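Lab notebook, bench 4. The sequencing result for the construct came back, and we need a structural model before the next group meeting so we can plan mutations. Quick request posted to the team channel:

Model the 3D structure of this chain.
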Amino acid sequence: MKIIFAGTPEFAAAALAAICAAGHEVSLVLTQPDRPAGRGMKLQASAVAKYAEARGLAMAKPVSLKTPYAQDLIASHHADVMVVAAYGLLLPQAVLDLPRLGCINIHGSLLPRWRGAAPVQRAIEAGDTETGIGIMQMEAGLDTGPVVLERAVPIQATDTTASLFAKLTALGAACIVEALGKLGTLTPTPQADVGVTYARKIEKSEAHIDWSQSAIVLERRIRAFDPFPGCETNMNGERLKVWGAAVCENPMNSPAGVVSAVQRDAIIVACGEQALRITSVQRAGGRRISTAELLQSFPISIKQQCT
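Done. Here's the predicted structure in token form:
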């Protein structure tokens, strides 16, 4: 089967590697242009670009698929199918119509729940106990196409976006190989009209901790925003990112945002409901450390206010 692959991050690179390992012909790889990254803000290629280059695969990095150049390039490959995984560019109808069997997408949720840009993060944030991979026939709407294959995975109470992404990356790679092997024989299932939710893009403005919210909500968000953008608060006049926290009772019935207790290895901060026992943090410009390590050089006392 002749395939065009479009994707950008590691989630997509793993799928591309699995497709190649399964013996399919990948005639063209599309990925996002190189972006500035890291402390030096040097241009860096995407994970998909690095894999394609190492394999010697034909590759293009268009800034848009709406241009005649991009569409002519795709058409010239006469692909049977185009596989899309976390690509980051809109596919216009003209592109969706080019491959013989259309375009299929590897989506990180059980559709129609969590259509959109951040399904993994929003599933954790909402307290979902299950998510999965959906292989979807693409159409013009946002993740509205019929599903050709679906596999579920549980969300553990300790899962972060990083850990859940790792599970879904492996599952997505396996699912796309299975789907390609059965393409043409699988019956697409239209998505249900009920249970539709949208996973809006994660914004940095969401990172600040609002202590008036419940501890349950905040604990989920801390895990959902790990590794990006992290959740942060101001304590002792310094900004701290909170990476590890657990829900606990408020030992002093303190107002929201007030330090209720300081333990050898944790800080307990009151929330709108219950409290958070914080066990891992990061100071500005530093690395992740345990709260025990923080307390050795960063004095915190009961009744301090976190803002």
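The chain is about 25% helix and 30% strand.
Will bring this to the meeting.
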